[in-house]
Amino acid sequence: MAGAEPRLPPVRPEFEVRPGEAGQIGDVARPLSAWERISNITLVRRLFILLVLAVAWQIYASWLDNPLMFPTFDETMTALWDASIKGPLLERVWTSIRVLLLGYGAGIAIAAVFTTIAVSTRVGTDFLSTLTAMFNPLPAIALLPLALLWFGLGIPSLIFVIIHSVLWAVALNTHGGFLSVSETLRMAGQNYGLRGLRYVAYILIPAAFPSILTGLKIGWAFAWRTLIAAELVFGVSSRSGGLGWFIFENRNQLETAYVFAGLVMVIIIGLLVESVVFRTIEIRTVRKWGMQR
After folding, report:
1. In a domain, 13, yes or no
2. Element (H, E) at 75
3. Could you tell me the residue range of the domain that residue 218 belongs to?
4. pLDDT given at position 234
5. N or C: at which end does the chain have fewer Cβ atoms within 10 angstroms?
6. Is residue 262 part of a domain?
7. Does the pLDDT at position 51 exceed 50?
8. Average pLDDT over the chain, rounded to whole?
9. What pTM value is reported for the model?
């Protein structure tokens, strides 16, 4: 209606809501109990899992009551202590680790060369993709007969099969990580004039490091398993053997507790490498950079 005043919204009365007592709401910053603080430690949780497995092992072996087939946990620990202090176990472990480091390092170096070529040229990408599709499904232990023919009975044969087990896993994960780098980072590096190795070192490797670290872990696991399997066949050389050869010798002598001791040592080394070496690298790189939770 013309000339009518606009209608204003109704005025609601003001009111004040007082919060209840703090005790009714609850303690938001409640301090953690001693059990909660301990259970938040990763090492404690993992040790608890290992303790449960050891107890289950002891119970089952005691119920089975057949030391030749399945020794108890305490018998295995006694054999492990005896072989480490009085026997050749630590020497065999060092022999295996020395060969493993040689093969693992060589495999990583070759994988770095392949992936650098692959990200530099289209032909390099096709070359790496073709080789990975051909050789990655091929078990490294299947090349052992050829390694014996080409390099003889010794360390070079083991290094050859270790390189094969490491190379394709590391190269595949590294190349996949490089391909997943965003175009924004790529253009930023190109705007700074980075080319070739500097482009790979300053842009691609930091951005793709989670995938690279995964490839290093997988390559380590493949290399360790391949080494133990190869040593079960012929040891490290004609005069001395590694950890796998220690297991094989005790199996022939029906020393089952020492066989289990060798297997436990394989597991211990795997846990130490995973929990100490790779976890330290992960904490100081991808987690520090905010790339992983």
Report:
1. no
2. helix 73-85
3. 89-287
4. 67
5. N
6. yes
7. yes
8. 81
9. 0.77
